[in-house]
Amino acid sequence: MMAQLDFPYRFDARGRTTGTDEADHIRDLIEQVLFTHPGERVMRPDFGSGLLQVVFSPNSVVLAATTQVLVQSSLQRWLSEWIVVESVQVETMDSTLRVTVQYVIRGSGARVVGTFVQGGGA
Asked: Which residues contact 7 (CB under 8 A, 6 or more apart)?
């Protein structure tokens, strides 16, 4: 199996483009979908989830449910060729956004739980 480009793009100690395996590449793709604002990519203005726009919104049950649907639909739209999304949990605290996604990698059948953090804390 051929290595994929790692994200963020960088060079290794030999001065070559850094590669990664399929599981890490898919994790990188999920992170890009979650934390890219629609309109940020020139050739794909609708790419992304719009998730970061809800970080400073007041917490509520309705906001949490809406955010989970937003994330799940964005992941299904952009990554359905690579993953099957089983569940999404979104938590906000102050200026930190934590998204936990349970998914199955289509190529290997591996079930993965990934946590993605954006903002003030880790």
From this structure: 25, 28, 29, 31, 32
CATH code, 103: 3.10.450.40
CA–CA gap between residue 17 and residue 4 (Å, rounded): 10
Domain containing 17 equals 4-119
Chain segment 91-104, per-residue pLDDT in tens: 877 667 788 999 99
What pTM value is reported for the model? 0.81
For 61-84, how does the pLDDT look when each residue is reduced to its tens digit (9 = 90+)?
777 778 888 899 999 999 999 999
Residue type, 71: V
Cα 9–Cα 28–Cα 3 angle in degrees, nearest 5:
65
